[in-house]
């Protein structure tokens, strides 16, 4: 046998290595799963995740970049029956999945999962809505299963620290959801999982820190590829025998723990451990913003001219967001100094508080320069279950106002009520659809189940 460079395996060695046992167990589980296997709590949470994504997509689609992108792509390719949410026109399924996934991440308001360290639903919902099949029960089952696959890979591996999670394991989520919608067999699920694992993006965390808005397309690409994976498998293409272990154990991530893929499989559903967001900014800012809300609740509103300095202590990933610069909306949403400053200036971290005039406001920008952010190692040690932050505001009159939180509002440890999630949906969707149409969409989502056609929701989403 020829000598090889250390660390490089020959084909005979690779082929002699059996695939991880979890893959067969997962594939069989996915093929056998039925809507009736989901508990009432899981179904209710899945409906809310679907509703939340639709609201985030509809509102994000109003950003000028999204409107221009949809217009260009539909003009080039022609229209279609798949709804482009928040846009006056439909598209082909792959294009609609891409556009809706992109719009859903524009405002940093889509739900997420703290244990997976990412946003699973927005990587699955656009694909399912672009290619609906069957009734509402099938749609919800596909969403719960796709969410589970993406989340489990996120939990079982550690992405390289330089990578952004969007567009990585989310492709697996989209592909798994689509495969379930089409009634895939266990063997087809195995092919889908292996195929999708090698089609994720090589994303960069630096992109979000610089405000590179290409980052908003990552979830769109994952949804589009999720649909494509099913076509590839049905057409006879084959993937690596154990693609997840390779990609998420060696290529884009490391420390892949296959036991996490099947731990409590079918009883612990990740979509039931998700979080919802109200602050229109990166989740890493939310601990500091929640602490700000506590300060305002106790001491009343503040004005920028009252504030001498602000000190924020938080966990490592949040402490990365220490730049006060806000050259565009995305950069502003990934800046704790700007988020704190615009909260003080406008009374909340709403969607308008990060847009044009608010983002360019010189008073807000000057205040952001007076906000310092540092890591607290003890807070970092509380990850991933908790997301703590401490804020201390020094006023010009010498007083110091402070507050601390251990986790974000909306997390499983401090969840929003169903009524609060529904209120958020209307805040986002009513301006686009009108109150009556938005109410009809809400009712259609919350009624999703057996014998309720998924196409009825799709028709409501088309403007």
- For the termini, the CA-CA separation is 64 Å
Helicity level: 40-55%
Structural class: alpha+beta
- CATH second-level architecture of the largest domain: Orthogonal Bundle
Oligomer: single chain
CATH superfamily of the largest domain: 2-methylcitrate dehydratase PrpD
Total domains: 2
Structure annotation, total helices: 23
- Main sheet? 4 strands, mixed
Write down the CATH class of the largest domain: Mainly Alpha
Percent of residues in beta strands?
5-15%
| Overall average residue pLDDT | 95
Task: Please mark out the parts with pLDDT under 50 across 5 or more consecutive residues, or reply none.
Answer: none
CATH fold-level assignment of the largest domain: 2-methylcitrate dehydratase PrpD
Based on CA inertia axes, which overall geometry fits? globular
Q: How does this structure look, described?
A:
- With about 475 residues, the chain is of the alpha+beta class.
- It has 2 domains: about 15-275, 2-methylcitrate dehydratase PrpD (Orthogonal Bundle), CATH 1.10.4100; about 285-405, 2-Layer Sandwich (60s Ribosomal Protein L30, Chain: A).
- The chain has helices at about 10-15, 20-30, 40-60, 65-75, 95-105, 125-130, 135-155, 170-180, 185-195, 205-210, 220-235, 245-250, 260, 285-300, 315-320, 330-335, 335-345, 355-360, 360-370, 375-380, 420-435, 435-445, 455-460, and strands spanning about 80-85, 90, 160, 255, 305-315, 370-375, 390-395, 400-405.
- The strands form 3 sheets. Strands 6-5-7-8 form a 4-stranded mixed β-sheet. The protein has a two-stranded antiparallel ribbon with strand order 1-2. It has a two-stranded antiparallel sheet with strand order 3-4.
- A hairpin with a 6-residue loop joins β1 (about 80-85) and β2.
- The longest helix is centred in the N-terminal third of the chain and has 21 residues, at about 40-60.
- It is globular.
- The N and C termini lie far apart (about 65 Å).
- The model has no long low-confidence stretch (mean pLDDT about 95).
